[in-house]
Amino acid sequence: MTSTLRNARQLARYRQWADQLTFDAVAALPPGEAAKERPTLFKTMIGTLNHNHLIDLVWQAHLEGRDHGFQARNVVLHKDLSELWKAQQSINRWYIDWSDRQSGQSLDETVHFKFIGGEPGAMTRSDILQHVVAHSTYHRGWIAEMFFQVPARNPTTDLPVYLRSLGPTAAGSS
Asked: Could you give the CA distance from residue 84 to residue 71 in angstroms, rounded to a whole number?
């Protein structure tokens, strides 16, 4: 298995793991904290998690060669955290299954698409997956900052922590 293929599969699984920790931590906050408005672009933890989910759907559509239908990045698709978590698990499963079906060659293929604002774009399938994972990591950082406003401790979702959780033999073969 090529390094690129192994990395794609590993990143898709890492994303699911990091989201699990994040959603569990947000769900464990005192009542109302996840939906409390804060000085951030997507207003709330749930709003930020919705943004991540929406962007996942956008890139899924690009990978499938279809229109995503979104006109904005700040649409709240699921107001309820548990409903959002179910939807996020579904899209995470899609990315895991998708990565399992890829080959080194397919990951190198260029996908042409339009950004939400209508501008044309082109990226390889591998670069799209890397972006999806990096994007969610970036916004989990926003959520981590909101945890300090609660105050509460946010989960540690760094890639090395994930790799350590797999154990010494599994970490090298994901």
From this structure: 20
